[in-house]
Amino acid sequence: MIMPRGQLLLMPVRPAFIVVSLLAALALNMLPLGPMPWMPDALILLLAFWGMHQPLRVGMGVAFALGLCMDVQQSSLLGQHALAYAVLMYGVALAHRRLLWYSAVSQAPQMAGFFALAHAVLVVVGLLAGGGLPSWGVALAPVLEALLWAPASWLLLAPQRRAPDRDEKRHP
Asked: What DSSP string runs through 134-145?
């Protein structure tokens, strides 16, 4: 694949970094912060990021398993978050090759649609299960996640931008 002009060639990501970042996002989502529907979902953000940049390592199966963990922790309908995360990963998988050509700032508005779709699935499944209508704050979460997309991308790609070991024979 031809790299876009001005984009650096990244080092391979360490699988342990992916696992640690996803577990940290899961732990952040599980913090007891009270009922705040506008709170951005850190796990949605990281699943979308790794689904775009490492689709062979983080796919719908990982998203579904982490969604089940969220369902159990939040005592919600079993499969509600799992379905929303799987739908998100499916959308990201369809568009990841196209999205990688854009900068993180240009990707953010496009990712807002995927984040809104995932939250819409959460709301619709909750309504079908007999839950009440959420407050208007639930519409703010995808916007906040889209605003966090560029800083999260920069932060998660930082370890891959490390300089390779310097070869003294080639570079005096």
From this structure: PPGGGGHHHHHH
Q: What is the pLDDT of residues 112-122, one digit of tens each?
A: 999 999 999 99
Calculate ∠ Cα 23-27-28, nearest 5°: 115
| Token pair belonging to 100 | 């990688």
- Predicted TM-score (pTM) of the model is 0.87
CB 115 within 8 A of CB 149: no
Give which of 105, 106, 103, 70 is closest to 88, Cα–Cα.
70
From residue 4, how far is each of 53, 57, 100, 107 by CA, in Å?
Answer: 15, 23, 9, 14
Beta-carbon count within 10 A of 90 CB = 16
